[in-house]
Amino acid sequence: MLQIPWFDVPAPPPLEAGDDASSAGSTSKKAREKEKAREKALGKERGAGGGKARKAIEFFGHMEIYPGSKKKHFARLRETTGVEFGEMLFFDDEKRNREVEELGVTMWWVPDGLDGGEFERGVGEWRRRRGVEGK
């Protein structure tokens, strides 16, 4: 089970000043990268797939948004899905939610948001903890 929380990302100001006080563009590089990753996840990216891109959300059979304690949230997820804690991988930008690791969940902290590299590193850690690294 992969659990990715929903969180609002504050939008950057419409213009950023360059070193010479000129306008540097309509959004920051970081914001453009996040938007590109979001579009890719939603299947909006076009290219080699010839318009056949799948939405990332289609890969997941269970979605929940749960305020409050993540330990309670994951206990509920285990009850409703039957997936054991050790099978779960959780990406979050809030370090305090690492408490789920006390249950056996692998949590990968993504303070700057989730991108492909962070996703791969998180999956790698989950595999390492389960003893399936390199298989």
Salient structural properties:
135 residues, MDP_1_eu_arc, alpha/beta, Magnesium-dependent phosphatase-1, globular, 30% helix, Rossmann fold, 3 helices, HAD_sf
List the helices and strands and how they pair.
Blueprint: E1 2-3, H1 29-41, H2 70-81, E2 89-92, E3 106-109, H3 116-130
Parallel strand pairs: 1-2, 2-3
Detailed description of the structure:
The chain is an alpha/beta fold and 135 residues long. It has a single domain (2-8, 15-130), classed as 3-Layer(aba) Sandwich (Rossmann fold). 30% of the residues lie in helices and 7% in strands. The chain contains three helices and three strands; from the N terminus they run βααββα. It has helices spanning 29-41, 70-81, 116-130, and strands at residues 2-3, 89-92, 106-109. The chain has a three-stranded parallel β-sheet, with helices on one face. The longest helix is centred in the C-terminal third of the chain and has 15 residues, at 116-130. The chain is globular.
Question: Quaternary status of these chains?
Answer: single chain
Q: What portion of residues belong to β-strands? A: 5-15%
How many E-type strands? 3
- Quote the CATH topology: Rossmann fold
The secondary-structure class comes to: alpha/beta
Termini separation (Å)?
A: 19 Å
CATH class: Alpha Beta
Shape summary: globular
Secondary-structure element order, N to C: EHHEEH
Q: Main beta sheet: strand number and arrangement? A: 3 strands, parallel
Radius of gyration (Å): 18 Å
Average predicted local confidence, pLDDT: 75
CATH architecture: 3-Layer(aba) Sandwich
Please give the domain count: 1
